[in-house]
Amino acid sequence: MALLTDDDLGSWNAGHIVRTMFPLLIGLCVIVLWAGISLNDADALLDQYGLLAVMVPAMIGMGGNLGSIMSARLSTRLHLGTTTFDPTDQVLWANVAGIFALAATVFTALAIGVWLIGQVVGTGLRLWQLFVISLGSGLAIAGVAVIASVVATYGSYRLGVDPDDTTIPIVTNVVDVFGMIVFLAVARLVLGG
Amino acid sequence: MGPKGVFRSLYREALPVLLVALVGGLFSGLVLEGMLDSVAEFPGLLVMVPVFLATRGNVYGALGGRIASGLHQGLLEPRFEWNDRLVNAVIASVVNAVSISVVIAALSWGVLRLLGREPAPLVELLGIMLISGTLTASVMIVGLLGLLFAGYKTGRDPDNLVGPIVTTLGDIFGMTFLFLAVVIMEVLVG
């Protein structure tokens, strides 16, 4: 095949990709560091209830997944010219309802999954405690994911930036931070840690 | 499509993918739980966990998005070949992934010092991040490209595959290699 010069490569040039992405990566690291510090400070709680540590990556990851689904839907509709950010837009609310229905299903499954792991490993958290922790923080995280997606997509749109490039990293990382804080707060509330 | 159709199609399309991601998340949760014993030896390790996982998503999500667009535009063939664009994209994601791993270690260490905590020596945190960052990069890149190419060839839209592949592979391999890096560091530190 023919060799491509730097000009041909354009936005595919490795140096160009690193120069545009690396500052964004550092910024996102600084944001998520907050989640890390919260997790670090919950050391004692995690030592006492190991099952909470089992929940952490799924909890955080799921918030990010819900946020990126919502953002992708919003920005696609924006590109197609069918989103108006009108609060009476029924399709917007159907998407929001869909996200909450998904959250309710997945976080119920998470509680049951973690409970089953607890039965095998033999560390005791009751099923109702896991339900309250998983669904309580999960639905709150879904709410944060929806709000963050709408704000980030609308913000990109107003600033004239393509939301495809910006919203997903912003939303997933913001949801990571809130997810961790909400999850640990709800767990402390339920377990009295 | 009316609001009811939108609701139904969203739920039906997303649920299977989310359930797969949930299994990946539970697996990495078990690894995290197993790593808690090492936290006493490497204070600051827990700070790096969410940042490390989030960064995997950011770096490889961007790579996947770029590859998906390249496939759609006909700039890339769905196979491992010496294509200048593909090579540049892969090199950029390795550079980004490894350099950001250094930043994560330095940032976590620095912030903990500022907050008056006692983190593990910087060189130990750096070692853990470099080992896990490099190992994760090799598996993630081969796995992500392989799955995207295979998906594209079987008629799936790579745009819809990137997110779930990155989350699931990133969770599983990110945590596994983080654990492995901690074990290697424990041996090195003695």
Number of strands of chain B: 0
Structural class of chain A: mainly alpha
Instruction: Return the structural class of chain B.
Output: mainly alpha
Q: Termini distance of chain B? A: 63 Å
- From the spread of the alpha carbons, the general shape of chain B counts as globular
Order of helices and strands of chain A: HHHHHHH
Oligomer: heterodimer
Q: Please count the beta strands of chain A (DSSP E, at least 2 residues each).
A: 0
Cα radius of gyration of chain A in angstroms: 20 Å
What is the strand and helix layout of this fold?
The complex is a heterodimer of chains A (193) and B (190).
Chain A: H1 6-9, H2 14-41, H3 43-48, H4 50-80, H5 90-121, H6 127-159, H7 163-191
Chain B: H1 3-39, H2 45-73, H3 84-114, H4 122-153, H5 158-189
Describe the structure.
The complex is a heterodimer of chains A (193) and B (190). Chain A has 193 residues and is an all-alpha fold. The longest helix of chain A has 33 residues, at 127-159. Chain A has seven helices and no strands. Chain B has helices at residues 3-39, 45-73, 84-114, 122-153, 158-189. The termini of chain B are far apart.
Essential attributes:
heterodimer, A: 193 residues, mainly alpha, B: 5 helices, 85% helix, globular
